[in-house]
Amino acid sequence: MKNFILGFFAATLIALGTYWSISDHPSxxxxxxxxxxxxxxxxxxxDYISDKLGDCPICNMRLVxxxxxxxxxxxxxxxxxxxxxxxxxxxQDLPGYSSVQINPEQQQMMGITLGKARVMxxxxxxxxxxxxxxxxxxxxxxxxxxxxxxxxxFASSEFQHINKGDPILSMTSQEFTAAQADYLTALTSxxxxxxxxxxxxxxxxxxxxxxxxxLLRWDVSPDAIAHxxxxxxxxxxxIVRSVSSGWVSNLAKPGTEVTAGNILYIILDLSTxxxxxxxxxxxxxxxxxxxxxxxxxxxxxxxIWKGTFDTKTRTGKxxxxxxxxxxxxxxxxxxxIRIRCNLGKGLTVPExxxxxxGERSVVFVAQGNGIFEPREVKVGSxxxxxxxxxxxxxxxEKVVTAANFLLDSESKLRAAPVNHGRQTPPQD
Length: 428
Description:
The chain is an alpha+beta fold and 428 residues long.
């Protein structure tokens, strides 16, 4: 009887246990572990974490869901596989960074966009400002042949165009007055009757020739000497005429005393001019002597002058020489210079894809399945809105081009040993 009672109680306990197991798990399978509650954090202040959706109390930015690290968030199927069963390779993280997995809804909310790394012909356009200058070989400097005092200017403006023989200035000089007097004296002496049997030149004739030659050396024209012979009156002032056609420059001012040998004026030939500028140090390696350049001016929009780099110094000073076909183009005018430098083929990404941290340059590479891998790259030249990538990427890989600063914050948050309990915002 005692054994019967004990067996009855044992059977009852087994039946109750089976009933409870079936009622709790109708399918006969163990229930999965409960999913951890969703938490939210601020992209700009990663240390602030909340269990409720809302705004960050520090910066009022909208909170975004806090994802679990990629090694704990897996899609259906074997670990590390995509929904179609293919494997997703996650590169090793950078020091202080971790890969981030973002679902499509959150990517859209964060504004994440992608761009491809592409191989293309690289062309760098170097721009700089310059100033027009005349060519030294095309400048004709006219010195004073004797001490003078400038009296009046006929070419009154700098860089005025004049023709050969046009009057430029008038001047007075004691030496010039004395030379005219010597010539008139020799002329009078030479007019006295000479002996009929004389077969040699008289001293009077030699003095006349010497005085005439002196006036010619001082640029007194034969017509002016003939006028002096007719009138027998010295010129009160001497008119200087241009020795060639061109643009006059460096005119002596009225009232200026100019000694023999000093410059009275300069005639410029502006058929060929140069633009002088200073090249930024970072662009020095791209520019070579003989390289073509384009020059533009504000006074004539759309017009392009083409020239070549004539010289380049180690200090960054450059000279572009080009033919001048415009009478309006003058020295000291400001010019814009463009040099197109062909750098060959190279791998590029959009400029916005590269995050410069100071120590390194980082891009986020889309690995599929919502996983973004931080990767260090070595950048080359900056070309328009692109960066040349020397190392770290291959052609065809997709990189994040917008909202990558949010991924940067999230990646650093995942890599940092942060307590994921609810944080209290700093108090004022």
